[in-house]
Design a protein that fits this description.
This protein is mainly alpha-helical. The protein is built from three helices and no strands.
Length: 74
């Protein structure tokens, strides 16, 4: 499984500190590119979904304030 992620022999990658850093940077770059490549939905007023609670009822600003006050009092 790990051998598929390393394009060269695993023993030769970690003989050099710089090769290990280059390999790690490549893995991080791949992860960032893979996770960050999805388009993000627009959150403007027309396309935004209304926030609801677990019952499906819309959450009002008063409800949000109650939760904020409850968290402050913990």
């Amino acid at each position: 499984m790990v051998a598929a992620m390393i394009p060269v022999k695993a023993s030769s990658v970690f003989k050099s500190r710089w090769m290990a850093l280059l390999w790690a940077a490549g893995i991080i770059w791949f992860a960032y590119d893979f996770a960050g490549s999805q388009p993000q939905p627009a959150q403007n007023g027309d396309n935004a979904e209304e926030t609801t609670d677990v019952t499906g009822a819309p959450v009002t600003p008063e409800d949000q304030q109650k939760v904020a006050d409850a968290l402050k009092n913990l």
